[in-house]
Structure formats: C-alpha cells, structure tokens
User: What shape does this take?
Amino acid sequence: MSWAELQVHYLAMTLNLFCVLVEKFIMQFELLFRLIGALIYGFVGYELAVATQGSFDLTSQSALVIWGGALGGALLGFLLSPWLVIAPARAARNALRNVSTPDLIAGIMGLAAGLLIAILLAYPISRLPPPFGSILPFVVAVIFAYLGVALMVMRQRDFYRMFGMKAATDMSSRSVAEQAGDSPLLPLFLLDTSVIIDGRIADIAETGFLQGRLEVPRFVLNELQYIADSSNSMRRNRGRRGLEVLDSLQNNPGILIEFVDDDPEDAQEVDDKLVRLALEKGAAVMTNDYNLNRVAQLQGVQILNVNELANAVKSVMLPGEDMALKIIQEGKEHNQGVGYLEDGTMVVVENGRRYINQEVQVQVTKVLQTNAGRLIFATPDLA
Assistant: This one.
C-alpha cells in the first residue's frame, strides 16, 4: 500500500472516530447543552421584549414584560435543546452510517475544493454593485460546495488514479484478490442475515466445500447489530450468535470474507438491496429466507439455500432397508411411534407405539419428500 493510500485509509479512520466522539460528547453533556440553549433563548427573548417595549427601565411596568420575555425564552431554550442539538446529532449519525467510507472521503475533499474556488471568486464578485456584491458571494459558495461534493463523489476513481492512488473500493477489492492468489475466477457469495444467524455456514466453511469469496454488505451488518441490541432476549441472542459466526469466519484462514460498504440507492429493504447488489456484481446470495429465495430467483439471481443443502446431504434410505431406531414419542395416527435419524429426519413407525423409549430394528416401507424435508415410514422388523 502506497503512502497516499495509507493517508486515505487513516483519514477514513479519523472521520469515523470523530463522529463517535462527537456523539458521545453530546450525549454525556446533555445538561450543559440545555443550559447553553436556555442562555441563548433567554437573551433572544430579552432582546425581543426590549424591542417591543422600548428602553429597559426598572421603574416602568415594561420591566415585567422584558423579564418575562427573558425567562420565557430561557425556559423554551431549556426544553427545546434536545430537539435542536441532540436530535440533529443522532440524525446526522444515522445518515453518516449509511454513507460508505469512500463516498464520505470523496465528499469532504470535494467540499474543500469547492469552497476554495468560492473563496478565490468571492473578492471580485463582492465588487459588484449592491445588492449583488453582498448576496452573490454566499450563493457562489453554496453552488461550488455542492458541485465539488457531487463531482468528487461521482468521479472519485478518476481523481484517485490521477494521483497514482487507488479508490478505497478498489483497495478492498485488490486485497481480496491478493489473498485469493490474484484469481478473479473465484465465485462471489453475498451473505444474508438469516444464513449468518443460522450458523451452519461456519461449519460448511470448515469442511472446505465453500470455495469462493464471501461478502457481507454493511446494511446486513447493521441489521445484525440491530437484532443483537434488541430488547427481546431471544432476538438478542440470535443477533449475538450471528456476530460470533462472522468472527469465526473472519478468523478462518481458509475463508476469504470481506465487509463492503456498497449500498444500492434505488432500494430500501435489506432483501431488495441484496438482490440489486447481486445483480450488479454477478454474485450469488446465500440465505435461508424462503421469500428472498423466491424473489431473487424470479429476477435471475442465483440462490444458495443452506436448508436445501442440508436436505441434499441427508442419508438416502430405500424401501426394504433395515436400521436401528430409538422411538421417542407417539405419532399422530393410532398406534404410531416416531423416531429421528442423526440428521434430524423423522421416521414414522407403524405399530411402534409400544416400543416408545426403546431401540428397535425397523424396516423402511416408504420415503416421501415434502416441502419441510424428507419423511420416512417404517415398520418394526420382527424377524
């Protein structure tokens, strides 16, 4: 990584740290901001009262109105400070969270360039006759600031290449390609929240059957973090399990996993964003979500469903085969018993009720494939 690329990387880290520190500062000093708001609004109320009542005179009746305006403004400022300071800070935090780091860096650089050009034009424009000389410099500053941000975000790759740098998205893609031995032919898989929480993806990766690059979009990670912070204990445990699965995948030296900031702007829901991103990158989506499975397939996106994989690798049983089975409960029909294979396949044993809590030899009579999985029917082998 070159010196210029290191500067871009550390600038991104500094911006993220700055946003976190500002938010924590605002949250910890809420009372201080309330007092500052009370002082400012109290002064505004005082000035408005003086302007309406004339000069301040303690002996006149207008003093009560003036002091009332000051106290009313102070009370209003104390009450509205959370909405004037803390609420905008939280809104800015949420907005910045949805902006990718490369776009954030490019936007700041474009803003600085636009304001620099506006400063150079401010003096000659200010020499124009009034009122243009006093109004146009501000208008020019706003226009060039917007143009600088827009142009820099849209053409950031070209700008970085002019100075021999790589855009942040290019650097992350290059690092993954280097880990993969510079082989661009490895398939790309996007992980959905459901398959991360399920956890079996980590076991599949351990076996070495998962040959490809894994990507976790930032919006999926944000949804997982939201679930982990839920007030519901069950949802919270599922979210934390998902984070542990990601940590396991990241620490697996045989797995190439990357967290990307790509966030399609023309989609709102997480499922829609995943489908759009898969179409843009030519990637497959790994999920256990049935609805996402159907929607993605209708749009031509390849789906890898862990549930279908689990059903496919279950042991194959044919009618007439014998096996040992422990019957653990009654069936729905009269005199039936139910047991389970090691892979979770249900086995319904006709006339098996009397063998509950016993291990007996059974003979397979029929195998059915249902939407819920494979179902095996058998009878006790009395031979």
